[in-house]
Amino acid sequence: MPDSAATGGLPRIRRAGVPAAVWLVVLLQVTVCLLQTAVFPNGRSPDEAKQVDLVVQVAEGTAWPWPSPGTLATTAGVRAGAVLPPDRLHGAAHLADRDFRPRGERPSWAQAGGAAPWLADGAPLNNQLVQHPPLYYVLGAAVVQAVPGWHDLPFDRVWMVLRWVNILLAAPLPLLAWATARRLRLPDPLPLAAAGAVVAIPELTHIASSVNNDNLLVLLGAAATWLVARVLTGDHTARTALALGGVTSLALATKGFALLLPAWVAAAYAAAWWHGRRTRGSAHGTLAASLWALAAMLPGLSWWARNLVLFGALQPHGTHADQGYLQSGERYTWADGGAAWLHRLVDRLITLFFVQDQAAHLRHDASWWASRAGLAALAVGIGVALVRGPLRRLDALVLLAPAAALTAIVAKGSYEQFVAFRNLGAAQQGRYLYLAVVAIVVVAVAGAVRARRWAPAIVLVLGLGLHAAFQADAWAVLWLPEGPGSPAAIGAAAGAMVRLHPFGWAALGPAAIVTTAGLAVATAVAVSQIRRRGA
Questions:
Q1: Which element (helix H / strand E) includes 528?
Q2: How far is 84 from 75, CA to CA, in rounded Å?
Q3: Residue 67: is the preceding peptide bond cis (ω within 30°)?
C-alpha cells in the first residue's frame, strides 16, 4: 500500500519482487553495451577523449583542485588509447583494411607524451569540460588509480576499464524504468515494456558504453524519476524527500542540466499537494517533505553559487576565462540564417536522440529514417497517454516537464552560439534529453494500455529495427573495407573489431552469446504476452 495517505483514490500499489524478465532486460543492456565498445573504437563517442583526459588529469593531480575556465590543456598521453581522430570523420574510415599493433605493444599514456599538452595546429588543445562540476571525474580518477601501474600499461586497456565502469553506471536504467512504471500502477506487461524501451534506444547504449559524464547524470535522473513517481503516488515521508534531495544534489555535482531538477521536485510536491488537498494533514506533510528535499539539495547547489561568485556565470564556458565572450564581436540575427538553424536543431535533436551520425553528413540514411520511426512511436504513446491513458494527466505532465525544459535549454544555448558566431549546429545533441529518458518512455508506454499485451513485442521490434539501422550506418562509416559490400566484407569488419579491442574475443565472445540468447528469450516472452488472455 502507499507509504502515506493522499493517494487520490487510486488502487493500492502492488509489492512484488522483480520479475526474471526484467533482470533479462538488465542483462541485455549490459551485454549490448559491451558489444558497442567494439563497434565504436575508443574516442568515437562525443567528447570521449576529453572526458578520459580530464579523468586522468584528476588522477594525476593536474586538474585538482578544480581548474578555472580556459586554463586546462588536453594531455598528449590520451592519444595513445585511440586509432581515429576524436572529431568528425570526413569519409569512411575502412578500419578493416588497417593493421593494428599487437595488444601488448600498444603505447601507454606515458609513452604517448604523458601530461605534456596535446598540440593542435601548434597550440595546446583546450579541454572545455572544466565547465562541469567534478563528481564524475573524481569517481573516474579513483577507478584509474585502482589500476596497478596504469601509467605504463597499454592505454587502450585503461580506457576500456573506464568504459566498463560506465556500462555498470547505466545498467540500472531498465530496472528503474520498470520500477517507475510499476509505482505509477501501470498494468502488466507495460512496466516490462518500459524497461525494454530503454535498451531499444541505440544512442543511449552507445553513450553508456563510452566514457561520458552523461552516464552518471542519466543514472541519477532515472533514480530521481522513480522517487518523483513515489511522491506523485502519495509518498510524502521524510526518507523519500531526503533521498530525492540527495540524488538531486549528486546530479547538481555532475552536470549543469541538473539545475532544472529543483524546480521539478517542487512541481512534484505541488502536484502531490493538489491530489491530496482534501485529505486532512496532507498539505502540512507535503510542505514538510518538500523542505526536507530542499535541504538535501543544498550541497549540490553550492557548486553553482560558487560559479556565480568566482566567474560571474552560473555555468562558465570551459575554454574562455572571459565569460563575456558571447557578447563580444559581431552579432547575428534571425535574418542571417535563423530558419536554417532551427531546421538543423530539430533535425539533430530527433536524430541524435536515437542514433549517432558518425560522419556528421546529415544524410537521410536508414538510421535517419529509423529515428523518425522511434519519434513517431514515442509521440503516439505520449499523445494517447495524455488524452486517455491510465496516468493522471497532471502526473504525466509533471513527468514530461524535464524533457520540455531540457529541449528549451538546448535550444537557448544553441541559439546563443548562432547569434555570436553564426554557428548553425552548435550544442544540438539529442543525448542531452537523456536526463528525462525514463520519464519519457514510461509515459509513452502508458499510452499502450489498451493494447498492453502487444507492448513488449512492439518495443522489441522497434528496438531491433533501430539497432539494425544504427549498426549498418556505424559499420559502413567505421569498419567495412573498401569495395562493394559482401558477407566477406562483413566478416573482415568483425574480425578487425576483435583485433582492435584491448581484450579481444575473451571479452566480446560471452557478450555476443548472451545477447543472442537473450534476444531469443525476449522474443519468446513477447509472444507469450500476446497469447495471454485477460489483463
A1: helix 505-531
A2: 16
A3: no
In the chain, where the domains are located = 20-46+165-531
How big is the CA angle at 370 (ends 450 and 359), to the nearest 5 degrees? 155
CA dihedral 98, 103, 104, 110 (to 10 degrees): 80
How far is residue 442's CA from residue 177's CA, in Å, rounded to a whole number? 7
Residue 119's CB is within 10 A of a number of other CB atoms, namely 13
Per-residue pLDDT 10s for the chain (535 aa) are 334 333 334 445 555 689 999 999 999 999 999 999 999 999 999 899 999 999 999 999 999 999 999 899 999 999 999 999 887 788 889 999 999 999 999 999 999 999 999 998 889 999 999 999 999 999 999 999 999 999 999 999 999 999 999 999 999 999 999 999 999 999 999 999 999 999 999 999 999 999 999 999 999 999 999 999 999 999 999 999 999 999 999 999 999 999 999 999 999 999 999 988 767 667 778 899 999 999 999 999 999 999 999 988 888 887 777 777 666 667 889 999 999 999 999 999 999 999 987 655 677 888 999 999 999 999 999 999 999 889 999 999 999 999 999 999 999 999 988 988 888 888 899 999 999 999 999 999 999 999 999 999 999 999 999 999 999 999 999 999 998 878 999 999 999 999 999 999 999 999 999 999 999 999 998 898 888 754 4
DSSP state of 362: -
The residue with cell 535550444 is 411
Indicate whether this model's pTM tops 0.85.
Answer: yes
What is the maximum alpha-carbon separation in the chain? 74
Hey, CA dihedral for 199, 532, 442, 350, is it positive or negative? Answer: positive
Cell numbers found for residue 194: 518500459
- Residue given cell 534571425 in the structure block: 334
Give the integer Cα–Cα distance in Å for 7 and 272.
9
